[in-house]
Design a protein that fits this description.
Layout lengths: L16 E6 L5 E6 L6 E6 L6 E3 L13 E4 L5 E6 L2 E8 L5 E2 L3 E5 L13 E2 L6 E2 L16 H6 L1
Antiparallel strand pairs: 1-2, 2-3, 3-4, 5-6, 6-7, 7-8, 7-9, 10-11
Length: 153
Amino acid sequence: MDGASEPIPFEVTRFNEIEGVWSPDGKYIAYRSDESGRFELYVKSFPEGTGKYRVSTSGAGDYGEGFVVGWRGDGKELIYANAQKVMAVAVQTEPEFSAGAPRVLFDLSGTKGVNITFGNDMTSDAQRFLIIVGSDTGSALSIVLNWQEILNK
């Protein structure tokens, strides 16, 4: 980032590749691509760009929905959303990359007002999640002006 080097494209295809997330060791990038006809989660080595692995098996959200939360802090699991489900995949990065079968961490499809979207996060041990919850009640958005004056009262 010092301007001494030129940026290098990581993935150049005719498909949409979005939401890249570095592995904790910096050797892999997890991202979503629609090359299969729907968005799936892939992992590719960095900086070599060799070995491309599809990690999800039944979609990883549509464009604008779903997300890649990221890697567990120890790099042994990838977390992503699939429609209204949050999924986990056990992974191994040494000596080479391999992934297990995706499993449901929790299902939010029966939860009223939940909209899994961008802006989600988790703790490094993947035990707690912060998920944006939308409202389907039609509530109005309130904008508070001069809020600092209100706080001072």
